[in-house]
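chain below, 128 aa
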Amino acid sequence: MSADRGAEAILAALDEAQRRAVLHAEGPLLVSGPPGCGKTTVLAHRAAHLVTARMVAAPRCLVVTALPRAATAMRERLLRLLPDQTARIEVHTLAALALSILRQRPETAGLKSGFRVASEAERATALA
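prediction:
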């Protein structure tokens, strides 16, 4: 399949509002809405469009979701849209991304290298 046909196929499954979000060209894009409104669909298709039509290298794509379930769904959709590129696209929950950034640069938040996050049980004990 040519790049043009791949890009057309990615857009064909979207409604007009979703298509506008996927085709947004300048700067970052925030997609928000209630459960079931198509946020995951838009983000997956946007990443696929950037890679196939805009020739953005997959490792330069970052997809951030709120919940682990949405991140899992995102990876599954990307696998269907971009089977050869999915592993190279960063998909994180906001919490996982924040933790990853803190692990890379702990000093910027006043933390020491090797810090750890308390477990659920440790947090409950500390707050009791």
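Strands lie at 62-65, 90-93. The two ends are 59 Å apart (CA to CA).
thats it, cya
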